Hints:
Blueprint (H helix, E strand, L loop, with lengths): L5 E5 L3 H13 L3 E5 L2 H11 L3 E5 L7 H10 L8 E6 L4 H10 L3 E4 L4 H13 L1
Parallel strand pairs: 1-2, 1-3, 3-4, 4-5
Amino acid sequence: MTCHDRIVIADDSRTAVAVLSFALAKEGYEVVTARDGVEALERVREAAPRLVILDGMMPRKDGFTVAAEIRADSSIDPQPHIIMVTAEGRDDDRDRAATAGVDDFLTKPFSPSQLLERVRSALAG
Length: 125
């Protein structure tokens, strides 16, 4: 892991943000948080993370829209790896995520160890 292993977590659930932030910080990652989609885009532009964890359903902009806007923004360079987390694991959600440019998809509930495995894999490449 390098000092550039910064991760933006965007989720409107305080509990989810707290649990994910704790687990990732404990592993040595630098964590930046956002509570909604608009704030998530701001944080991605400011923090230049290597990885973004987006909740599918957030206020002001959902995670699908945020992912698509990250992918469409040429000023975000290099592009971060995007992991979508959502309470719904429906095929249409997976299709929407793929269309938006999401790299990986996790359905809630998941364990912090499952997420850490995905994060390590994403940042290793």
